[in-house]
Amino acid sequence: MIIGSEKDVTDAVLKEYQRIKNPRLREIIAALIRHLHGFAREVKLTEEEFQAAIGYIVALGQRTTETHNEAVLMSGSLGFSTLICLLNNGNRGQTETDANLLGPFWRLGSPPTKNGDSIVRSPTPGAALFVAASFKDVDGKPIAGAEVDVWHSSTEGFYENQDPVQADMNLRGKFLTDADGRISFRSVKPAGYPIPIDGPVGELLRAAGRHNMRPAHLHFLVYKPGFKTLISQIYDPQDKNLETDVQFGVTRHLIGNFVRHDEPRRGAGDVKPPWYSLEHAFVMEKGAARLPKPPITGKAQGERPQIPHLEAV
Ligand SMILES: [Fe+2]
After folding, report:
1. CB 128 within 8 A of CB 276
2. Residue 197 in 3-state DSSP?
3. Radius of gyration over alpha carbons of the chain, in Å?
């Protein structure tokens, strides 16, 4: 159709995209057009603002490398990643869920590790942490033989693939659940960390007066055919940024049961206080066991990166 005025544009565009044969793609594109046009009308987007928006989108791609994914950071910073997660898990948002954000730092090929062993693979400061996790189906039946990837940042706030100082695969491991659906391992208690702010995400955070910290957490990815792959994070309740996570990842259900111990750990003479324990019972939904694509694939080389901290205002 020939466009006469502003009022005709949305209908003209929608009409052309009705040609899409795949019904789901047709639905998504039509809704995208309606909401995108509606957004521009609502805020009366100026030509200068439109040019700035295009520059922003271009910068998301330009900033993304083998070791950094700016698009993932932006989606998280807008709460979009958490919205998608909660819309698609917990019986499609009806119940609490252990599902959470993947984040950018998951790697394929974590080293197989025996239950009870340590995932500290090079000297790493921090209090000892003993984790015991169990995995059940929605009826409470233990899930044996599930592969559980675990990964977290160091107390200095870096994942090993960001940090040339740490050994390859430090603070990562792949465990197999036992007959009772359990895994256990030793590590160090992680710290929160800042997300990079040298790109469009930093610009947005500064404009909003937000800090750039994620509260301390551990990541889990659980794979077993017959179950929807569970991607989760467990958060430290003591972290001061728990309520203002820059990525909006914290949900009430995933605030971890960390316990501080001020006595030496019995049966393991080398563990001095304070040390911590953490237990969590995960529930997996039935579904397709698919692995995500790792958001980044490279390992940082050279100097340890310097990521500045933004103060909230
Ligand atoms: Fe993380």
Report:
1. yes
2. coil
3. 22
Tokens of 71: 């698009």
| Token pair of 220 as six digits | 């889990």
Ligand 1: centre distance to CA 233 (Å): 8
**DSSP per residue, 110-150:** PPB--TT-B---S---S-EEEEEEEEEETTS-B-TT-EEEE
Question: Is this structure's pTM higher than 0.90?
Answer: yes
Q: From CA 127, how far away is CA 184, in angstroms rounded?
A: 17
- Taking the centre of ligand 1 as the mean of its atom positions, its distance from the CA of residue 189, in whole angstroms, is 13
What are the pLDDT digits (tens) for 45-86? 999 999 999 999 999 999 998 778 899 999 999 999 999 999
Give the tens place of pLDDT for each residue, 240-259.
999 999 999 999 999 999 99
Residue 104's closest CA among 79, 75, 126?
75
Cα separation of 38 and 178, whole Å?
53
User: Across the strands, what pairs with 198?
Assistant: none
Residues with CB under 5 A from ligand 1 (ion): 103
